[in-house]
Amino acid sequence: MKIRQLSCKLKLEDSSKEGCLMVEKVARLHRHGKHKKVDRLTKAERRARLEERRERWIEQWMGLAKAFIEMLLNSEVQELLGRPAHQWGDRTEGVEVNACCNKCGRQHRGWFRRNGSYPRSLVTEGLVVEFRVPRVRCSCGGTVDVSFSVFVPYQRVSAEVAERLLEAVALGLKLREAGEMTAPANGGALAKSTIEAQVLEVSRLAEGIHGGELERVPPVVLVDGIWVKVMEPTGERFVDKAGRDRPRMRRKRIGLLVAYGVDPASGEWWVLDWERAEAEDTASWERLLERLRGRGLVADRGLKLIVSDGSEGLAAALEMVDLGSGVRHQLCVFHKLRNIGKAVKAALAETTEEKRKQRREVVKEAAAIYRGQDGSEIIKRRDEFVAKWQSEEPEAVATLLRNFDKTIAYLDVVAEAAARGERWEVRYLRTTSALERLNRSLREMMRNLALFHSDLGLEARVYLVLLKAGEMLISRGNDWLEVLESELAAA
């Protein structure tokens, strides 16, 4: 009994000691402030600290960029001169370099020497960098033009930023939006004039696409027109709020006629040319077709079919421009079916839903006509359609029969290709649907921009959009910006 009481007493003492130790531990932690709530920064203080860190980062990054650019420039000058600094050149040395004196025209490095430096600013990815450019003079006293790899003469925007600007414009951004997207951290958004200068540089390439021999003549050409708005001068002038004398401009709606080449054997397609037009009239289509003919788009080089909607101006122009014997004109089946749907009246239908149902039924049966395997089957299906709907939907039937032979012109072309042992997909020959993807890219750009302030701006924008969309003739796997850079260098 005594032993049991003693053991209970020891257990109570041990538990009381553990409790005391725990209380002492909690008190000690509380004294050290581990569970004490710290004062938090306000939003303003946090923004101030972030801004301070950002400024320090920009300053450090500018210092690194400045040192790196100046190191590159100095190493290029040393490589050009072929000797270290503070060493005179040998005028008897006959080594010519890629630099020329503006005064005497010499290109011998022995006559050239270092002559201090001059300040320069350059907009790079994220920063505006201020640095010193080494100057080179000739012994005759003239200044030597040196072509540096970092920038070209008078350039204030780096090649990387120029690429981003062109890409932004090709995506349909406005000049202000493109400037904000590429804004350097220490310089604000780029001026619209700076971006416009980069864009107008591309206009030389856009001019080039309208001339010269076609590298590849497609068997099938799709043509279509879209509409854009441009600004044109009225001949009047006015003084704006800033006191500047400016020409008065007005909006004008113009057409853009696009010719699109298709290879029905491989499924490839690309833009051949486009024409600025006042309307989709005969004269405008004739200018485009005549220019394409002069560049080699003729039957003798492989042209077989022209696909279009029901433009009367184009039909008249095709009669006037000789593209060679055997070239056929195919009317777009999709546009034909759309016009049939518009012609459905559904006079006997009592509700809107019944009218829609009948319109869908008529269009569905009209589309089934063109799923025939050959000409005889298509004609049979056409006659069945006419017999069924003539009394109830005479306008839809008349729309189908109007120029029906031109909606099946592709049959002869496919048959001729088969005779040569070639298999052509009819989906590339019956409609201009492939052109709609291109037109969507162009229309999206038009909606974002609303209008163009010059014809050159329109040409450059269209070229960039087509190039970005992959609609220019570019080998698969090549980057569109690399292609643009090489073409600009060639221009």
Description of the molecule:
This protein is α/β, with parallel strands linked by helices and 491 residues long. It has 3 domains: 98 residues, no CATH class; 43 residues; 242 residues, no CATH class. Helices cover 48% and strands 18% of the residues. The protein contains 17 helices and 9 strands. The strands form 3 sheets. Strands 7-6-5-8-9 form a 5-stranded mixed β-sheet. β5 and β6 form a beta hairpin. α10 packs antiparallel against α11. It is elongated. It starts with a helix and ends with a helix.
**How many strands, what sense, and barrel or not for the largest sheet?**
5 strands, mixed
Number of domains: 3
Percentage of β-strand residues: 15-25%
Work out the helix count: 17
Principal-axes shape call: elongated
What's the mean pLDDT score? Answer: 78
Low-confidence stretches: 1-7, 471-481, 487-491
**Structural class of the secondary structure composition?**
alpha/beta
| C-alpha-based Rg, rounded | 37 Å
Kindly state the percentage of residues in helix.
40-55%
Per-chain topology:
Layout: H1 2-32, H2 43-81, E1 99-101, E2 112-123, E3 128-138, E4 144-146, H3 159-170, H4 175-181, H5 192-201, H6 203-209, E5 220-239, E6 245-263, E7 268-277, H7 282-294, E8 305-308, H8 312-320, E9 328-331, H9 333-343, H10 352-369, H11 375-389, H12 394-401, H13 404-407, H14 410-419, H15 433-449, H16 455-468, H17 480-490
Parallel strand pairs: 5-8, 8-9
Antiparallel strand pairs: 1-4, 2-3, 5-6, 6-7
Task: Write a brief caption for the model.
With 491 residues, the protein is α/β, with parallel strands linked by helices. The protein has three domains: 49-146, no CATH class; 159-201; 217-458, no CATH class.
